[in-house]
């Protein structure tokens, strides 16, 4: 067999093997040659460059993405979690699993943990494995009561956190947003409520996610806002942390609503040893970007799809 014919034959063998998924023995049977000959022809095709094998490692650029995000947003830590799919459900599953493991490693004796609520937070709480620690306090960073039938899982979330860290939860048994400022300020004067809010301020670790200002956002379905307020938030805000809405630069977007909101102030998140934002998905890009520009988190846990979008996002 001449060299050109041999090369064409090796390409034919390679097509059968790599493109049509024939086994080497099946190729041997089909072409009437021995299996060792098939092996030699496949090697020849690779050696001559007719076959080029590219291996894509989905984990290889995660560290690089984390470094780039740390630099862009001046973060203490950025953890990029691999998600096989870019849909919100898949991302939430993988982020919550990583966040639970991260907290298991991070929380040490004597830590006070501030916890928010929401779908992502509940998934994290469900996945935390019990840890044998002492002197832990788990406090709710915002009220979790509404007259809506929509479940926030606020009580379940903080209860699961407290159970995992061998302690009793410190609930903030109030609506997160009051109808008027006067009522909210009156409630804050109660010494029991003052004590709980102060515990949130003293927390060395805070764990939270970001909400969006989409029509079906959880906070919009809880009955706190009238149509005019919802319209204003959609026009001026990009998201919320602990039910405090901020704009694309991270500044509070509506002072009137913010003054009716009870729980931790966003400025107080800047003083935590670890202020941990767990969020991902295309629909949360604006909210995550605004939160990080506002410096409300120094630890970010997100997925590779979201990380790339954040890095590509222009100011």
From TrEMBL:
Keywords: DNA-binding, Transcription, Transcription regulation. Residues 1-59 form the HTH crp-type domain. It comes from the Bacteria. It holds the Pfam family Sugar-bind. PANTHER family: TRANSCRIPTIONAL REGULATOR LSRR, TRANSCRIPTIONAL REGULATOR-RELATED. InterPro entries: HTH_CRP, NagB/RpiA_transferase-like, RNA_pol_sigma_r3/r4-like, SorC_transcr_regulators, Sugar-bd_dom_put. This is Sugar-binding transcriptional regulator. PROSITE patterns: HTH_CRP_2. Belongs to the SorC transcriptional regulatory family.
